[in-house]
Amino acid sequence: MIRRLVLDVLKPHKPDVIELSEALSKLDGIEGINIIIYEIDQQVENAKVIIVGNGIDFENIKKKIEEMGATIHSVDEVAAGKIIVEEVKTPQDRFARM
Amino acid sequence: MIRRLVLDVLKPHKPDVIELSEALSKLDGIEGINIIIYEIDQQVENAKVIIVGNGIDFENIKKKIEEMGATIHSVDEVAAGKIIVEEVKTPQDRFARM
Amino acid sequence: MIRRLVLDVLKPHKPDVIELSEALSKLDGIEGINIIIYEIDQQVENAKVIIVGNGIDFENIKKKIEEMGATIHSVDEVAAGKIIVEEVKTPQDRFARM
Amino acid sequence: MIRRLVLDVLKPHKPDVIELSEALSKLDGIEGINIIIYEIDQQVENAKVIIVGNGIDFENIKKKIEEMGATIHSVDEVAAGKIIVEEVKTPQDRFARM
Amino acid sequence: MIRRLVLDVLKPHKPDVIELSEALSKLDGIEGINIIIYEIDQQVENAKVIIVGNGIDFENIKKKIEEMGATIHSVDEVAAGKIIVEEVKTPQDRFARM
Amino acid sequence: MIRRLVLDVLKPHKPDVIELSEALSKLDGIEGINIIIYEIDQQVENAKVIIVGNGIDFENIKKKIEEMGATIHSVDEVAAGKIIVEEVKTPQDRFARM
Amino acid sequence: MIRRLVLDVLKPHKPDVIELSEALSKLDGIEGINIIIYEIDQQVENAKVIIVGNGIDFENIKKKIEEMGATIHSVDEVAAGKIIVEEVKTPQDRFARM
């Protein structure tokens, strides 16, 4: 059971971030959505999309995102199971500046 | 259902930030407002506006902000759904210094 | 309803910070005050004043501050509404070192 | 009794991170899984896998990971016992940037 | 009503920090004291003194500190009112490295 | 009564970190173990071992670690007593980068 | 009433940190002890000793530390009173990197 997703999404300016978040938050199994616009170009916006729920259907999310003219660039984090497990930092983390 | 918005707003010195925050906090569906003035020029002020509520009506917010002579420069974050989802940091975050 | 204010205040050495904080904390609608002296010159002190309450009357605060020989240099943050909304960090924050 | 594992895993693009996390979260003794993709190459992805449970069977985890075409590159942290013990920082930590 | 004070105090080596903290903690209206020695010279010690209470009498504190041969160099923070208000960070903070 | 230990341990690759943590977590008086591998060489691994319990027997721990072919390089932190006391930072800390 | 002490202690290798922490934790009025070894030389070890209790007797602590061949190099922090007061950061803190 998928509990949380962090997606990197490329979207056109229209539909806007308000519409995209409302559309995603209405899908089955979704408890909440957070969308952060972290870069704006002339044609597109880069958005970090965090989705929390009980039994998130990834294909459903993907379909809705594409229906709105956007594309999933990458899936950066997935939490699955009975509980939402958070990241644990270790000295082996290669991604220095986190 | 929109639960939280982070807006970048450009406002004239008058009406002041006290008046703007009071006006926004009285709108339907709003539980609280935080306005931070992060830059002041001779003519205008740059404000970061955080709005929390149950069912925030973005068009309503926008109308009130414009009525007060200010403009929304960008929508930087939207949280929607039954719960307010917070950001999750990942190594893929391109915006290094956050 | 104003719930929290962050003010940048310029004050003379007398009345001192103890007197100023006691005077402000007695005003109607005030639950608590925090005053931080962050710069001291020969003639004046720069103070960051944080005011928390239920229905803070800004004009009242301003009047009391001026009665004590001090002036409000800027209003840096205002929280209004039923709940006190805290700041949310986003990658669009232009004020880098916060 | 193993309570938490942090693994560094090398995986092919397919099966994807959604499938891998769902498969691992269904194993006996697992309460939750978090998978973070921290590097993507043409052929493979580097993933940090955090597994929380009551009595995690490492051999079972390893078998499932390998069934899905991935390999455990290293075991970076293990928590065992009645409670999950978190890291404690000390001045002797040689791994400076943690 | 003063609830918390942060003082910068210059003290001789004797009486020592144990005696000073015990003496201050016994004054009326004081709930607790924290004294941090942050610099030691041949003759004197620089101490940061944090005082928490319900109705702290600053003149009383000052008198006791001076009785023990020490002097208040500055009053760096005052919290007053029904609740103890903590500092709130804003982009206007001029004191960069806090 | 020893409540928490932080040990720097040098271990061979075999027995692995899973076996070591399971063996230590079964000793009397142990509530939980966390082992972090922070450096791997061809012959050995450097591990930070955190042990939490009610009445930890250090000699017992040491014996078990040595039985498994590993050695305690140093004892970096010890918490003893009825409660587990955490570190307190002070300006006198000479170990700058903690 | 002393509630918490932070001491900088110079100790010989023997008795070791386990023995020192057990001995101190058994003294009257002590609830818990944390000893961090932050530097090891050929002859001595530098230890940061944090002591929490209800009515800590400093002379008693000092006597026990000296009985074990160690010496108190400095008293870096003292908390006294009915409650344990924690440090509060201010822009006047001269000890920059804390």
Task: Describe what you observe in this structure.
7 copies of one chain form a homoheptamer. With 98 residues, the first copy, chain A, is an alpha+beta fold. Helix content of chain A is 19%, strand content 44%. Chain A is built from 2 helices and 4 strands; from the N terminus they run βαββαβ. Chain A has helices spanning 17-25, 58-67; strands spanning 2-12, 30-40, 44-53, 71-81. A 4-stranded antiparallel beta sheet of chain A has the order 2-3-1-4, with helices on one face. In chain A, β2 and β3 (44-53) form a beta hairpin. The first copy, chain A, is globular, with a radius of gyration of 14 Å. At the A-B interface, β1, α1, β2, β3 and β4 of A face β4 of B. β4 (71-81) of chain A pairs antiparallel with β2 (30-40) of chain D.
Question: Which features does this protein show?
Answer:
homoheptamer; 98 residues; alpha+beta; Alpha-Beta Plaits; four-stranded antiparallel β-sheet; 2 helices; 19% helix; globular
How many helices of chain A? 2
Number of strands of chain A: 4
Chains forming the largest contact: A-B, 34 and 27 residues
Structural class of chain A: alpha+beta
Major sheet characteristics of chain A? 4 strands, antiparallel
Tell me, rounded to a whole number, the average pLDDT of chain A. Answer: 94
Please report the first level of CATH classification, the CATH class of chain A. Answer: Alpha Beta
CATH topology of chain A: Alpha-Beta Plaits
Strand content of the residues of chain A, in percent? 35-45%
Order of helices and strands of chain A: EHEEHE
The percent range for helix content of chain A is 10-25%
Stretches with pLDDT under 50, minimum 5 residues of chain A: none
Number of domains of chain A: 1
Alpha-carbon Rg of chain A, integer: 14 Å
Q: Using the 3D structure, state the CATH architecture of chain A.
A: 2-Layer Sandwich
